[in-house]
Design brief:
2 copies of one chain form a homodimer. Chain A folds into 2 domains: about 70 residues, Arc Repressor Mutant, subunit A, CATH 1.10.10; about 150 residues, Four Helix Bundle (Hemerythrin (Met), subunit A) (Up-down Bundle). Chain A is mainly alpha-helical and about 270 residues long. In chain A, helix 8 packs parallel to helix 10. The first copy, chain A, has a 3-stranded antiparallel sheet with strand order 1-3-2. Chain A starts with 13 loop residues before the first helix and ends with a helix. The first copy, chain A, binds a DNA duplex (30 and 30 nucleotides) through helix 4.
DNA sequence: TAATCGCAGATTGTTGACAATCTACAACCC
DNA sequence: GGGTTGTAGATTGTCAACAATCTGCGATTA
């Protein structure tokens, strides 16, 4: 905490500093910081975000914090309950499932597009990524695999040159990362990493060979395989602790009454 | 204007009124109203949204209005320039193009899913929609076609039962509607309606027959054909008025200096 | 005359205060 | 003892005021 740039970086060139001040409002800064906190795991699904506390921590008033909340809500990272506060979203398994399906369709499109448009330089960059991931798997640093994996997929989407596709993709992946957070650390170590990277190689190979259909199919199947691995890991985690009696249970006490009224409000 | 529900609808059942008050904040109401205004064309791309004026018009303070702005910004409907205000977004042609590509991939998925899962009742509902659109085309009320068209596609996505897919789809379509606004009224009357509805029939036929591949392909091609029709209409509109000297030009005066500084800020 | 400068009004960014609501705990009743 | 009621503290929803920035227009000057 307290890593906010409260003091301005005077070292930078003056023009860029001016431009920065012009485009950055406090709301933007707060939004960015909160997104970072959530995505990096400093805040976990179900956690409550206290307006006043956050405002004090970031040395701003509650206004910008509330505005940042509305943006994060729209992006699916937090959820607001009137008069109760905002909470880091807990993605239900069913929603994660649906998201995987959408993501698979998008990545299939990515594969098809890249098979036609990719450049030699881009292929080279992808192969370098593959090697780095290979080292992460075979070496004793499997913790590094996940960020590399994210970067690899993001790079593929970037290479399509379709910004809308990229934005849509990232939105979905952000939410999936939220879902994976708890099961991830343990889940993916069960041995799926080698398999996953094998699928990555198949993808790059198909793209490089210019086979659009195969490239699309390999990406689609890779996403669906990831989903299956996630389910498996989730199942393991689930049975590991018998009755899910740890952590924050959002429904208890008179919450039941509130929930019932909410549902009736439809 | 002034169609806000300032007075509460006492006629409704008390429980639903309570539930409504529990879930609706002023921010939510303002957001909804602004979205309606934009989507129904009361506000056009490029228009400036004045905080104080809107707050007065809706009888709230500027706080909720600002929060609604942040949500609309994240959803892509408006765009904010610090210290200058928020504007209804003007979708560049290239972005619309990219959006059509993403949408086509999503609708292809919709077709594939529905070919497997659709129910007889749903098929019936789709066929009724087809007839309504048919009447709108053959009759002398082509203005009704567009909303029916939107409803038809939305219904298809709803029938997949995948809420995430639906949310993603709607986000894209909202932005596309923003893009189409100016060219639409004139553009689609050039005669594409009959063709469009023919494609709709092909889609429903393929879905009903359970042919996933054909259903997906027909939807993909329909979206791409829509894009082509849009381009054509846009081209017509473009050449119709020689030098695009009508309407609001966002870049003029000392704006050029600002824009240059913004770009340097990257 | 054309360009620049500077000011007044308007608009946005941010803040602090007040009102409404919720949460937790204690007193009370059956 | 179990359950309800009521109250105090904390938290959120909303508002109005202040500060910073921008916009447009007139004055000034070369």
């Amino acid at each position: 905490m307290s890593t906010m740039p409260s003091a301005s970086p005077i070292g930078a060139s003056p023009s860029s500093t001016i431009a920065l001040l012009q485009s950055q409002s406090l709301t933007t800064l707060v939004r960015r910081e909160l997104e970072r906190m959530i995505l990096e795991g400093e805040l976990s699904p179900g956690d409550k975000l206290n307006e006043a506390a956050l405002a004090a921590q970031l040395s701003v008033s509650r206004g910008p914090v509330r505005e940042a909340f509305r943006a994060l809500q729209e992006s699916g990272l937090v959820q607001t309950e009137k008069n109760r506060g905002v909470f880091v979203r807990e993605i239900p398994m069913q929603e994660a499932d649906e998201t995987y399906a959408v993501r698979a369709a998008l990545e299939q499109l990515v594969g098809q597009m890249l098979a036609v448009s990719i450049s030699p330089a881009q292929i080279k960059e992808l192969r370098q990524m593959l090697e780095r991931m290979e080292r992460a798997v075979s070496g004793r640093s499997p913790d590094n695999y996940h960020p590399l994996n994210l970067q690899f997929h993001d790079l593929l989407v970037q290479f399509t040159g379709n910004d809308k596709l990229l934005a849509t993709y990232r939105r979905l992946v952000n939410e999936l990362n939220l879902y994976r957070r708890d099961t991830l650390a343990q889940g993916s170590k069960v041995g799926g990493l080698t398999v996953s990277n094998g699928e990555h190689r198949r993808i790059v190979q198909a793209i490089a060979s210019g086979n659009a259909e195969e490239a699309g199919r390999s990406m689609y199947e890779h996403v669906m395989a990831s989903r299956a691995r996630m389910h498996k890991a989730k199942g393991v985690a689930e049975t590991a602790l018998p009755d899910r009696e740890k952590g924050h249970d959002p429904v208890k006490g008179q919450d039941k009454r509130r929930v019932a009224m909410r549902e009736a409000a439809l």
